[in-house]
Design a protein that fits this description.
The chain is 49% helix and 10% strand. The chain has 279 residues and is mainly alpha-helical. The chain has two domains: 160 residues, no CATH class; 58 residues, no CATH class. It has a two-stranded antiparallel ribbon. It has a two-stranded antiparallel sheet with strand order 3-4. β3 and β4 form a beta hairpin. The longest helix has 26 residues. The protein is globular and about 90 Å long.
Length: 279
Amino acid sequence: MGLFSGLEAFGFKNEDLKVYSDTKEKEKAEQQAQKQDVRVNEEDCLFPKTHKCPVCDKEFKSLAVRAGKLRSVGQDDDLRPLYKDIDPLKYDAIVCPHCGYAALSRYFNHVMPVQGKRIRAQVMSQFKGMELSSDVFDYDEAILHYKMVLMCDVIGGVKNSRKAYTCLKLAWVLRGKREKEDPKMTPEESEQLRMEELECIQNAYEGYQMAFSTEAFPMSGMDEMTVSYLIAELAFELEKYRESLQMLSNVITNSAASSRLKNKAIDLKERIRAQVKKG
């Protein structure tokens, strides 16, 4: 028996009907369901951004990410940021389709006179032009853009930390392609991508090692403790366990390091011990 018993005679089935429903719980459940169901198309996260090339002075448009559309889902141990539905790293390498000058977004507009002269002489003089996609960048296109950035970094003679940062981000993009669910990718292709990623990690490690004692902080937007942890993590990925532990000790014992970073450093130390124990 219940408040609505007897109404079955009129066709109503109200066994679960409540006079006072918990609207807050219901709204919370609905919101949670909506969050889980909503998927964002990559195109919806992008817009064409106008740039003026600091080398050739020509304007062009390149795809950029709407920051408000990004939903963080964590990061890898080497600080690679992870997002739901889109990999914004694919869009951080900007290439001028007119002259070939390329740089990461944080550096694109900052060209020293000597750097610009070298780019014009060694890149612009050979560049045959490039057509940029207007909808989305696939990983292959993004990888080529990053390689253009690295070439311009080397030719332009930028700081070691900047070249290291480019190598690190290229490693992340290669990893993104390898981790993408692609049934057409063979085990051999996956292994080749992993080898290319490790080559980039090796170069990032060497660059940050050289920059650590010769350049001022912040470096690539990171403070000294973050760079110390990053070098330790890169050393770990390269199986340089002793070098990794040396950098970690600086993080774990330093009062300037955040508790979050110290926890990551302690976790890395445990991973090193586990690997050493494996032999």
